[in-house]
Amino acid sequence: MYESLGPYTKNQLNKNVQWSLRKRTYNFDLAEKLINHNDAVIKNVTKNENSEQPKKTFGSITDEDIIKLKMEEKRKITWENKLFLSPLTTVGNLPFRRICKEFGADITCGEMAMCSALLQGAPQEWALVKRHKSEDVFGVQLCANNPHLLTKCGQLLQQECDIDFIDLNLGCPIDLVFKQGGGSGLLCRNRVLESCVRNLSDILHMPMSVKTRTGVYKDENIAHSLAPRFKDWGVSLITIHGRSREQRYTKSANWAYIREVAQAASPLPVFGNGDILSYEDYTNFRELAPEVQGVMIGRGALIKPWIFTEIKEQKLWDISSTERFDIIKKYANYGLEHWGSDNKGVENTRRFLLEWLSFLYRYIPVGVLEQPPQKINERPPFYMGRNELETLMASPSAADWIKITEMLLGKVPDGFHFLPKHKANSYN
Ligand SMILES: Cc1cc2nc3c(=O)[nH]c(=O)nc-3n(C[C@H](O)[C@H](O)[C@H](O)COP(=O)(O)O)c2cc1C
Which segments constitute the DUS-like FMN-binding domain (predicted)? Predict the structure, then answer.
């Protein structure tokens, strides 16, 4: 199964497995057999549908049929009413997820991992499947543009790792991924999408979920028409981010449409995702979309990881600057534990902390707001903190973020420069 990195971290890439992936000797017969079988079925059904002939069944049971797991034989996860921390590239690393778990996140997921790189045994991609022992319901999110890569990866992760579910990324808007037909690019390729979902679901003993957007274009919502098909193809949960690829973060998430998707998917559970930054947002959106079974939270958790506590305790928390600083301090410690406390580990911890600080500064303390709670798409007003630390943590300047890391990790090396990877500022 997995080698453990001490008692706390699972899913370390085993050297023999890495070797066989690099040498291309890992045995993927199971995945290949399944794809050939399923693709023949999909082709035949389509042919029969087109010629309006009665659908054929597929003869006697073959070994392909035997390896196919029926939905009811799969392990199950109770999704209802759970708080799901979004997969978050770069920032949703293991130390950050530990913090969110401590504040009450129920479900966590690794950052999007590219199947092609996992199949090559690339260490930086395998870092994305590591799981902390506190992550009791943990998924890995995969991105690929074809069923071969996905199904092989499903087989590989199932055999080599300890994971509770696999999520298929159908929302990534990045040009490079989209143009090659992965992420939200799969939404435009019906046949390939069907093959990806069916094959991945069939090879897994664990549940699979999909994370999608409303569609590709802003005026062409398609998630509601895909939703019932996802169920037929073997999906256990749909998460829908209520924006199209084209919209990125402009405009508010469309929760009325998220509701339509939940209605169309029923009884398959649907989670809503987009713009939750407070308990008030959470209750408003759940009232707007009562058929939705749970929510996923991304930027809300990056800006205020205690949002999970707020939702569970149904309150707005006027957290002090010292308490906030303690969270950052804890992250630095978790970072050093995870990335190492040698020079390289310290600088990795610093880089990832800086990425997180580029979101954290957007938090506006409850006590300084005229009309709490803060809304995710409102531009923060200029304000002075109630003390020096609160003012420092509100600074949009990378120089001040660096100063914060220096309070915890020592001086930056000479010539140090930092530019955040993600543009966190998308206000209406
Ligand atoms: C920094 C960052 C990284 C993200 N990385 C991923 C990712 O790896 N996979 C994914 O499906 N979505 C990713 N997303 C999208 C979020 O999961 C989520 O769908 C989106 O931010 C909307 O939810 P929110 O309003 O709660 O942030 C990312 C978003 C941000 C801000």
Answer: 85-338
